[in-house]
């Protein structure tokens, strides 16, 4: 949804030149990777669970119309009001209208990637409604006036030093001590009264339960419950792919989601929200609205991207992506970064403006390997590359370069001659086992290691062996 | 055409299927929940209460736990907890009969939880051994905010309500009208949003203390 003022390459260049960013990314993704690895050793059933999770999501997608109707029927029976939105704009308009109808001056929000996807923060700001982000990371993003850079840790691009500076400047009673504990406490004090005085709360949903019409949120902070309980109106926005048949299926998916995201077995708070406050209830909202959002999902069904609808937004693919770990999330320009973002952003924003994303991939396959629902991300990325080529979106320089490569590679003598020369030149610039400072290769080796060529090439060894026989 | 019809039509044309047999869908959905032991972790101990406590007190959940023989011992257990932390005996008590019927002499009680409440005492409907979780249903005797506002949350759970797995909770409540909120609480509130390092007491409780009453086959 965000309009990118700079090209992907220009943003990547900026990110690579920012030394603080690399530290921030490494601190969070490194921890996430380690914790997930430990969780996997304690869950030998992971492979079987993952296969089952994949089948559950495939089953739901194959019967999506059935489950949407079942969910709608049960949600209405529970007292909820169900709304449907074809596009991001339509979804935001519905939420803003509901807020206005509720006479809302202040709304509290629980972090939701769908909310970001439909541009909800912007729509609320435009409508002049005070928006309070309650997830700690989203609170940091809001104070910093920038955008989330990760789907689980939206403020991972900030170091503790930067967060401390912002809190001291913007909180009413900021921390005195320079510890992360004290900073978290400062945010707790800052947000406390806002939770309790909001008119409307807005959350997303990790799952929609077809058989009861309930929605499910998972958080570690407890901000979802503090957000969605006091206000008179609770609005849920959710993508239509979030359905599961029942709570049992949600539980099977939760085991995969949480371990893949943070390495915990379950989040501290897993809450199911079903309808508004019931007769006799001590607290809870009087109105409960659910906005079901398409925004490109039915197009993905039609255009051979069904596999991507399994995605449960755990973030494991980005935590394990060598490109993401160099660049961080902002460079991707869309709501969703990393490998899953590179697949999804062209769906939302069109391939023409985002064709660089599917190219920002080494095809090492790590994302698919860690994906808890086995999405073939490299295959989907390759699909975008093919399409970009077929639709003539690749620039002339790329077409020309590939043309030359095809010409040379299909002529073995010429190819060998070319590579023999290249290897000799590279050897001239080799120091300590790496190629350094070679003209024409500087942009590549500034942020990457380029190993020096082996002493002897494969072809040289092969010829010697042939002679020896 | 309404947004609803447009979306449903687009789903159907994307799937290419015409008629859905609800009974067949149901059978397929049920089949996906067969053979659960192969897709979930094993319990940490043989006995349910032992497995539950092992999870509750594991580093990942990082709560504390103790066992008492009968609910009548709860006030004394709470007293010991407060003394250890040097806290006053002023507590918010969940307005639930199993708690209100106990002898709380020596305590100053209230049932409305304040935004900066120091100590709240609640009772969970179920415990889950798989994850060390406590399950609450919102209702007339269970305000939702009572589980989230206090800094110290002390929760009583009867040993005979501890279920092995999360799936057993789903099975135990299947077919019933769900409450507005089902809260599955596992440990104290935490955040890893600043550089991935875990800090407790983000917005919810910083301390969770679980008191298990009786044995699995006692009716206390």
Automatic annotation (TrEMBL), chain A:
Indicate the segments forming the LUD domain, all copies.
70-293
- GO biological processes: lactate metabolic process
Report which superkingdom the organism of origin falls in. Answer: Bacteria
Gene3D superfamilies assigned: Alpha-helical ferredoxin, NagB/RpiA/CoA transferase-like
Q: Which GO terms describe its molecular function?
A: 4 iron, 4 sulfur cluster binding
Supply the alphabetized keyword list.
4Fe-4S, Electron transport, Iron, Iron-sulfur, Metal-binding, Repeat, Transport
Classification via Pfam families: Fer4_8, LUD_dom, LutB_C
User: Which InterPro entries does the record associate with it?
Assistant: 4Fe4S_Fe-S-bd, FTHF_cligase-like_sf, Helical_ferredxn, LUD_dom, LutB/LldF, LutB_C, NagB/RpiA_transferase-like
Domain (Lactate utilization protein B C-terminal) spans 406-466
- The reply to whether Transport figures as a keyword in the UniProt entry is yes
The UniProt record lists the keyword Repeat: yes
Q: Which residues does the UniProt record annotate as the domain 4Fe-4S ferredoxin-type?
A: 308-375
Database matches in PANTHER family = LACTATE UTILIZATION PROTEIN B
Name the record gives this protein: Iron-sulfur cluster binding protein
Which species is this record about?
Thauera phenylacetica B4P
TrEMBL record, chain B:
InterPro entries (alphabetical) = FTHF_cligase-like_sf, LUD_dom, NagB/RpiA_transferase-like
UniProt-recorded name of the protein? LUD domain-containing protein
| One Pfam family in the UniProt entry | LUD_dom
**Highest taxon, organism lineage:** Bacteria
Q: Which organism is it from?
A: Thauera phenylacetica B4P
Lineage here is: Bacteria, Pseudomonadati, Pseudomonadota, Betaproteobacteria, Rhodocyclales
Residues covered by the LUD domain? 119-213
């Amino acid at each position: 949804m965000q309009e990118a003022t700079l090209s992907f390459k220009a943003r990547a260049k900026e990110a690579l030149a920012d030394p603080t960013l690399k530290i921030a990314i490494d601190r969070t993704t490194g921890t996430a990777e380690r914790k997930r690895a430990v969780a996997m050793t304690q869950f030998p059933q992971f492979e079987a669970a993952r296969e089952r999770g994949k089948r559950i999501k495939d089953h739901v997608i194959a019967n999506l119309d059935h489950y949407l109707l079942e969910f709608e029927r049960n949600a209405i029976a529970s007292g909820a009001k169900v709304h449907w939105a074809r596009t991001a704009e339509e979804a935001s308009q519905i939420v803003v209208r509901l807020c206005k109808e509720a006479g809302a001056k202040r709304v509290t929000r629980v972090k939701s990637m769908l909310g970001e996807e439909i541009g909800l923060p912007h729509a609320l700001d435009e409508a002049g409604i005070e928006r309070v982000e309650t997830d700690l990371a989203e609170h940091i993003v809001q104070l910093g006036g920038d955008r989330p850079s990760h789907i689980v840790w939206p403020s991972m691009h900030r170091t503790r030093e930067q967060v401390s500076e912002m809190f001291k400047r913007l909180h009413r009673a900021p921390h005195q001590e320079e510890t992360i504990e004290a900073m978290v406490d400062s945010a707790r004090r800052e947000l406390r009264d806002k939770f309790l005085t909001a008119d409307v709360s807005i959350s997303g949903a990790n799952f929609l339960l077809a058989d009861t019409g309930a929605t499910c949120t998972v958080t570690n902070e407890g901000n979802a419950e503090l957000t969605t309980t006091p206000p008179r109106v609770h609005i849920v926005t959710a993508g239509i792919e979030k359905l599961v048949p029942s709570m049992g299926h949600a539980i099977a998916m939760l085991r995969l989601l949480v371990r893949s995201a943070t390495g915990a077995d379950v989040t501290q708070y897993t809450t199911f929200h079903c309808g508004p406050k019931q007769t006799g209830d001590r607290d809870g909202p009087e109105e409960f609205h659910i906005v079901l959002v398409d925004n490109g999902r039915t197009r993905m069904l039609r255009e051979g991207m069904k596999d991507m609808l399994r995605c449960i937004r755990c973030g494991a693919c980005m935590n394990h992506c060598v490109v993401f770990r160099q660049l961080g999330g902002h460079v991707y320009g869309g709501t969703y970064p990393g490998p899953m973002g590179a697949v999804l952003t062209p769906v939302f924003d069109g391939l023409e403006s985002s064709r660089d994303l599917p190219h920002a991939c080494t095809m090492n396959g790590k994302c698919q390997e860690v994906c808890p629902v086995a999405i073939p991300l490299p295959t989907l990325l390759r699909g975008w590359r093919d399409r970009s080529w077929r639709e003539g979106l690749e620039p002339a320089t790329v077409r020309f370069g590939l043309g030359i490569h095809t010409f040379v590679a299909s002529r073995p003598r010429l190819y060998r001659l070319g590579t023999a020369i290249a290897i000799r030149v590279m050897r001239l610039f080799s120091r300590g086992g790496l190629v350094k400072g070679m003209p024409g290769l500087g942009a590549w080796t500034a942020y990457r290691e380029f190993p020096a060529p082996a002493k002897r090439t494969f072809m040289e060894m092969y010829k010697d062996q042939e002679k020896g026989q | 055409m309404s947004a609803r019809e447009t979306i449903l039509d687009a789903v159907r044309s994307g799937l290419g299927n015409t008629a859905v047999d609800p009974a067949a869908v149901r059978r397929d959905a049920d089949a996906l929940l067969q053979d659960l032991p192969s897709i979930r972790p094993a319990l940490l101990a043989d006995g349910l209460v032992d497995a539950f406590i092992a999870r509750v007190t594991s580093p990942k959940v990082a709560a504390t736990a103790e066992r008492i023989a009968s609910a009548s011992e709860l006030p004394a257990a709470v007293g010991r907890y407060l003394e250890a932390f040097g806290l006053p005996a002023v507590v918010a008590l969940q307005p639930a009969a199993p708690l209100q019927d106990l002898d709380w002499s020596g305590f100053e009680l209230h049932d409305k939880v304040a935004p900066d409440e120091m100590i709240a005492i609640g009772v969970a409907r179920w415990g889950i051994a798989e994850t060390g979780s406590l399950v609450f249903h919102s209702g007339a005797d269970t305000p939702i905010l009572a589980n989230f506002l206090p800094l110290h949350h002390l929760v009583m759970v009867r040993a005979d309500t501890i279920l092995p797995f999360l799936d057993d909770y789903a099975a135990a409540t299947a077919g019933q009208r769900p409450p507005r909120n089902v809260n599955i609480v596992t440990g104290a509130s935490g955040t890893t949003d600043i550089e991935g390092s875990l800090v407790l007491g983000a917005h919810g409780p910083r301390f969770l203390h679980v008191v298990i009453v009786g044995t699995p086959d006692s009716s206390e």
